[in-house]
Amino acid sequence: TYWHARDYGLFSLNPFGRKSFDPSQEESQWKLPAGQKVVFRWRVVIHPDDANVVDLYKAYSAER
User: Fold this and answer.
1) Which of 2, 49, 51, 57 is the most exposed place for a label (fewest CB within 10 A)?
2) Which of 25, 33, 6 shows the shortest CA–CA distance to 15?
3) What is the domain extent for residue 57?
């Protein structure tokens, strides 16, 4: 997932625009069938020191 921010306050994660951020990447070709839905989940962890990413991911996965 690519992250980007704008000077007007936008802070965004974009899993689809990879070619826009890196021209060497393939273009995203993702389609949602009519009548279907999709759910994306992200967790942002802001911490003052090193984080144990493995433990954070396990805790996140356990909540699902």
Assistant:
1) 49
2) 25
3) 2-62
Q: What is the pLDDT of residues 23-64, one digit of tens each?
A: 898 887 888 999 999 988 877 878 888 888 888 888 888 886
Count: domains in the chain: 1
pTM above 0.70, yes or no: no
pLDDT of residue 36: 96
Cα separation, 47 vs 64, whole angstroms: 22
